[in-house]
Amino acid sequence: QVQLVESGGGLVQAGGSLRLSCAASGNRFRISTMGWYRQAPGKQRELLATITPGGSTNYEESVKGRFTISRNNRENTMYLEMNSLKLEDTAVYYCNAKAAYFYWGQGTQVTVTP
Fold this sequence. Notes:
The termini are far apart. The strands form two sheets. Strands 2, 4, 5, 6, 9, 10 and 11 form a seven-stranded mixed β-sheet that branches. A four-stranded antiparallel β-sheet has the order 1-3-8-7, with no helix packed on it. The chain has no helices and eleven strands. The chain is mainly β. The protein has strands at 2-7, 10-13, 18-26, 34-39, 46-51, 57-59, 67-72, 77-82, 91-98, 102-104, 108-113. A hairpin with a 5-residue loop joins strand 5 and strand 6 (57-59).
């Protein structure tokens, strides 16, 4: 079992920045690829970015150049640095980890205001 806990969400003005964290515990040594997703009201959950244990990253086009995913394997934590935030970035943000199964955190709300 792997437990994931996100933090760092909140209210931010458009153009501002936030840094989300995802702390992994439990059987974290089996975690391979991790990722960040988000789900806006009335929309499907979408993949934003992924990172392998070695640090290789992939980004969805709408966040490329604005968001940066990173991870600290020693501290079992993953991050999402979000810059130049837009109103449409408002959503609940989830972290995901692949181990024996796919695990999800509980989500953290990000609200971008005008």
